[in-house]
Amino acid sequence: MSDVERRRAIAARLRDARRLSGFSQGQVAKRMDMHRPTVSEIEAGNRRVSADELKQFAELYDVKMAYLTGETPETLDLDDPRVQLAARELKKLPPETLDKLLQALAALRTEDKDKI
Amino acid sequence: MDRKALTLQAIQAASDMRDQLDFDQFGPVDPYRAAELLGVKVVFLDSSMEGFYFKQTPARILLSSLRPVARRAFTCAHELGHHIFGHGSTIDQLQEDDRVDSVKPNEVLANAFAAFFLMPSVGLRGAFSRRGWTCPTATPIQMYTVACQFGVGYVTLINHLSYTLGEITAARRKELERWAPQRIRRELLEDEYDALIIVDEHNEAASFDLEKEAAILLPLGAQVSGHALQYVRSLEGFELYQAIRRGRGKVSGVHTAFEVRVMPKTYVGAAANRFVEDPDED
Question: Closest approach of chain A CAs to the CA of B40, in angstroms?
Fold first, then answer.
């Protein structure tokens, strides 16, 4: 993956993670002590994000750092042991609902060390 | 399955939870505050389900932002039930009618827990008697007022009073059910609003949650701080306000001061962030 592609991939994850947190770009700018256009530029993939900033974003959005960097998948698998018990019921959900649910679960921070 | 035993177990757990969290045994409670105190994170998603309990560390509750605000609160308490009973990850699919009795013991437990945690019997009886009303004869608007105070839906309260507590007869329940919340809103207000909360002078709840554009009736003389609510007009015994901005407003000049919290419509995001003022709204 080129630098540009990597930056864009992180940008897309940052945008999804912010939406999942419920914050607007303006609210994020205030909390990250950034100008609002900086947040827009980051989410458009036009500005590089430092490792330190990524860590702050992960904390603010309550998501996994590895999710933002793209090290973990965008969505949770139905075979994942954490949802296995509910998998049969989950399969009954409308596909769109299931997708949204599994995507959110893939992003949200966990403290279970072996499942980061 | 012994429903009675499960219900008794749920009543005890609901009471224990109030003790554990230092909530009083009778008054209205905020299930989101309870989740926060228990270290359970709540997130709203715009997807068609009731809720999802995700067992991990930290535990998560996912709720549908497409459901009415009071329904979400009930589902939040229901998922908290799964949490405290140590159940595994559970999906609760969309339900049109909360009287469809589940055949799964875990669901019966979680439902009864939610009902008694949010609507303790003694607290409900007190809410009616303090106002000079009685359960069996309460009008739809009176029922609606009590439902608002406990943060639950009108039909949820009526079902609990009828099926579970036996405080109102089946015939009376059917009469009350003919009054949909929409009809109650039209009876009280000339204007059309998507949602309405009634807070009267006897209110004991510490907070009320509203979506933007919803209407709220406050007791005469109420003073509102902040920019979340806008005054509309006075009507008999009440001041009508509308939720216009995300944020919080403190209401004073009433018997017990309380807070009104406004979130965006069909808000997606962490429950903890839903009332944070948004500079992008300017």
Answer: 12
What are the tokens at A95?
């596909």
Chain A nearest-CA residue for B63: A101
Please report where in the chains the tokens 């998501």 appear, as a residue.
A63
Contact state of A112 with B56 under an 8 Å Cβ cutoff: yes
Please provide the distance, in angstroms rounded to a whole number, between the alpha carbons at the two ends of chain B: 55
Q: Where are the beta strands (DSSP E) in chain B?
A: 41-45, 51-54, 60-64, 90-92, 196-198, 207-211, 215-219, 223-224, 229-235, 238-243, 247-252, 258-263, 269-270
Helix axes B140-149, B181-188, angle to 10 degrees: 110
d(CA A10, CA A57) in angstroms, rounded, equals 11
> Could you tell me the pLDDT band of residue A116, with boundaries at 50, 70 and 90?
very low
- Three-state SS at B138: coil
Q: What pLDDT sits at residue B78?
A: 97
Do B93 and A89 lie within an 8 Å CB cutoff?
Answer: yes
